[in-house]
Amino acid sequence: MKLRSFRIRIALLSAVLAGSAIAGFGLISWWLIYEAKVSRLDAELESQLMRAGRPRSPNRWQSYEAFLPGAFGTNTAIAMLVIDANGNVLYRSEEWATDLDTNNLWTSRPQLQPFPPSHSQRQTAPFPERSQPSRDRPPPPPRFVTQRTATGTWRVGAVTTPFAQVAIAVSLKAIAQEMVVIRNIFLISIPGVLLLVAGGAWGIAGSSLHSIRRLTKVIGNVTASGLEQRVPIGATDVEFVELIQVFNQMLSRLEHSFKQASRFSADAAHELKTPLAILQGELERTLQQAEPGSEVQQGLSNLLDEVRRLSGIVRKLLLLSLADAGQMALYRVGVDLSGLLIEMLEDIELLAPHLEVKTEIADGLRVQGDRDLLVQVLQNLISNAIKYNLPNGWIRIDARRQGATVLITISNCSKEIPTGDRDRIFDRFHRGDPARTRKVEGIGLGLSLAREIARSHGGDLTLDPTLSGQTAFTLTLPVGL
């Protein structure tokens, strides 16, 4: 599963790469340290082998072995094996493991010289003449091998001298203990370093994404009334400059296009107001002069209704264009919503006496707002509840205060609204009747304008999820000061 957080991926990838590098470095370092310790042990073994290979009487091997702990450490197990020219064991330490392999310790068995006689022998017999080793054939260098036995791991060094074959075995237990300490240090320090690397990568990634967060903040604040915003470049990283420039250019194009569209809607609505007012006045004057009950009077009456309907469309379009441009002027006063709703109950009884009206209106619901616009919102909601109701249906009005907000819910008995229509119910010129018939009056601008008015007051208008067979809209308004 791919992690969707870029910052987490950067931190984890940095930790993995750094961990691989540090782990590889740790393994190589551990191996080099081990090899260095073994090499130093081999050098000391070679020095002691050369000393041990000097001629001495057989009974002095044990005395010589007693000095070896001073070279290798007092806590280190040491064993020694000495063989004469005939393959006889001159000396074997008690610590010499029986399972140490001595077959391959010496690569060759050159002709060995006999040991010189002891002091008592030199008094009775001359010292035999020794043949000097051949300068053309120097003795082979010491050989070092590592052997594992039941008693532990040993580093064995063997050398062939002109007088004897000597092998010294040193236990690697002390080196193994030191390497365990070094390994534990690595195991403790590496996770700490990885945490530092991951934390550093997390911080660096966060710092690198600062420009993206600024861009996201500006994008989140982009609304119809906030298209003039721009993201400042300032000291932004070079990699994000082009992105910010493209985004600012896009905002400029959107602002220009939106202002043109809003200006066109406002200008068109404003220009239509005067001819429509003149046309309505002329129709009303002509209608008064027509013969009562004639076809001319009926035709003029129908034309006057259409002109009034068109005037309402123009008025709503003008308000919507002002809302889009963020220029809807509000004349804020104290508005008694409880009183307004009670007054509108009388209109419901006159317009729809066949409907059952249920109310639950709290007293003293007051807000700061434009009274005429809020009346328009409530009238629109009540009008829709009447128009889209079922025969012998009902209307319910609930008004209450919740914290610093006034909630007004107007619900009615109705057919179920399809899901597609629920998502588009606040779209402009959208109506639930796909044929756009006049069976239900309306132009599809009322809910859109009501929501814009609510939002201009700092509130909102929403379609509530309800049970089948009913529709409910909730108007929320801040109480204000």
Automatic annotation (TrEMBL):
Print the keywords alphabetically.
Answer: ATP-binding, Kinase, Membrane, Nucleotide-binding, Phosphoprotein, Transferase, Transmembrane, Transmembrane helix, Two-component regulatory system
What PROSITE patterns does its record include?
HAMP (PS50885), HIS_KIN (PS50109)
Name a GO molecular-function annotation.
ATP binding
The record's subcellular location field reads:
Membrane
Main location per UniProt?
membrane
Instruction: List where the protein spans the membrane.
Output: 12-33, 66-83, 185-205
- Outline the extent of the HAMP domain: 206-259
Could you say which EC number(s) this protein's record lists?
2.7.13.3
Say which domain of life the source belongs to. Answer: Bacteria
Domain (Histidine kinase) spans 267-481
InterPro entries noted in UniProt: HAMP_dom, HATPase_C_sf, HATPase_dom, His_kinase_dom, HisK_dim/P_dom, HisK_dim/P_sf, Sig_transdc_His_kin-like_C, TCS_sensor_his_kinase
* Pfam annotation, one family: HAMP
Q: Please give the name of this protein.
A: histidine kinase
Organism of derivation:
Funiculus sociatus GB2-A5
